[in-house]
Design a protein that fits this description.
two-stranded antiparallel sheet; mainly alpha; disordered C terminus
Amino acid sequence: MQTDNLMLTIEQVSQLTGVRKSTLRYWEKSFEEFLKPTRTHSNRREYTMEDLDLVKTIKRLLKEEHLTSEGVRLKLVEMFTEDLKTEGERPESRKDETKPRGAAFGKNQARPSGEQGPLP
């Protein structure tokens, strides 16, 4: 069974991850540059398998590693930066879904660890 195009509802993601629907909606706002499910014509959320993996990662970072929301955001920036580096080495093995979604990182958003000064 091919799962590349499989879309999940918020209810299904909630059941698969054990994360409440209200929490998923909150994380969508808190981590909007990473977690941005698509919307149907009737405005219902549709999550990809990559979104499902991201929800599991966010849950693990919060619950097991006890990171704050800002810590999770920084960790996600680090993870996506590593994915982008890997993508440059083997472009045929990665797709655009590894890149953060939504707006580009602005001056008020998290910057990779240790960097200072304004963002480009």
